[in-house]
Amino acid sequence: MEKILVVDDDVDICTLLSAFLTKKGFEVSKAHNAGGMMNLLKEKKFDAVLCDFRLGDMDGLEAIGEIRKIDPAVPVIIITGYSDIKTAVTVIKSGAFDYVSKPLIPDEILLTISRALKASRGENAPVESNSKNEKPKQVRQEEGFITGVSKEANELFRQIDLVAPTIYSVIIYGESGSGKEAVARMIHERSKRSDQPFVALDCGAISRELAGSELFGHEKGSFTGAITQKTGHFELANGGTLFLDEVANLPFDVQTLLLRVVQEQTMKRIGGLKEIKLDVRIIIASNENLQEANRKGKFREDLYHRFNEFSIHVPPLRERQKDLMIFAEHFLSVANKELNKKINGFDPDVTDCFRQYNWPGNIREMKNVIKRAALLCDDEVLHAKFLPIEISNPDKFMQPGNSFSNAAATTTTDLKSATHGAEYETIVKVLKQVNFNKSKAAKLLNIDRKTLYNKMKAYNL
């Protein structure tokens, strides 16, 4: 019987997860804080750890570090309240196997645990495509990246091949979800640093107060809440490549420190005295023009010029029509593998829907759409009825009488429904106004990006 450790300071969630997993045949142990977690890890060997990102006495990154000290091999699955995938990138790059977001879905938890257990046993084989027409060169299995065959794809990879062997810093521009991190990883894997670490940090997913600590680390007691020493991303990437996504979100004072570190190739942890020598190649990414960000006073001009040795633009999915179904076939093959299904391709209506849809969330959106459709599919072929309505029937989706706001229109005495309906319509209107640029939409809506992503998920946008 496989042993699972569940760690959550919410007693109710911990109890429910424990009961659910016990019914599914696992031997489950519970802990409600970091101390209890570490005691249990020292007492027995676990096959997987399911840990909440925000414990009362420790956050998820620190928890991963402590778990690794006791059992370096155990897969760790983080439970996070943030539904945006990018929020969890830092956690995964810090050593977690994967994450699940609240509200928790039983099937998703079981699937993630199953994948973690298979990975720890070495059972994860390379994913094979179901498409008979797919050429092997279109999916780089060793890199986990799809190249495509379009003119835009060829130009993108020509630039990657050109800059990868150099020591240049690179700026990657592209919309959210278009694959900027995958491009950065490919540059690293084709460089002379490929045998060294590739470390990614989403600067838009960390608080202003913790940005410096995430980059440079800190010493124990250097500020309130610094209960242990922390290694920053620069140290983790030493000798390799550091990828900073949405870099314009860094506070100005942290940008100043970053400039000094980049120029001098040395740093000190926050609260520390020791100079640490660095050899790090930096790749940054942004979904907004950094020159424009400089004019708005958001990004230092000298930092921009320091990074702007080479720039790459990642085209959005809607501009890569020839690659569209290559991506779709690949994601379907991945979903088949994860769900143990044998869906043999797409109905022609699905292909038409995909080609007509604007894909505001780009590759990431397509991946999630196909995973969800494959989970719902009970046929040998994936049909349009399994797709979200905004893709399968966009005209109906945008009709006021059929939108989410219909709930408010039909029950106008229900204040809560009316409020949700007005909120939904405002979010849709603003997203369309800025061509689904989520950073700009969040600014116009006067909310942060995390809140916007959560609301979009709640309204199935």
Structural overview:
- This protein is of the alpha/beta class and 461 residues long.
- It has helices spanning 11-23, 34-43, 60-70, 85-93, 106-120, 151-163, 180-189, 211-216, 233-236, 252-264, 290-295, 301-307, 324-339, 348-356, 362-376, 389-392, 394-398, 406-410, 415-433, 438-445, 449-458; strands at residues 3-7, 27-31, 48-52, 76-80, 98-101, 139-140, 145-146, 170-173, 198-202, 241-245, 266-267, 276-277, 281-286, 311-313.
- Strands 2-1-3-4-5 form a 5-stranded parallel sheet, with helices on both faces. A 5-stranded parallel sheet has the order 9-10-13-8-14. A two-stranded antiparallel ribbon has the order 6-7.
- Helix 2 (34-43) runs parallel beside helix 3 (60-70) and helix 19 (415-433) packs across helix 20 (438-445).
- The longest helix is centred in the last third of the chain and has 19 residues, at 415-433.
- It is globular.
- The two termini are 40 Å apart.
- Mean pLDDT is 82; it is low at 82-86, 124-144 and 403-414.
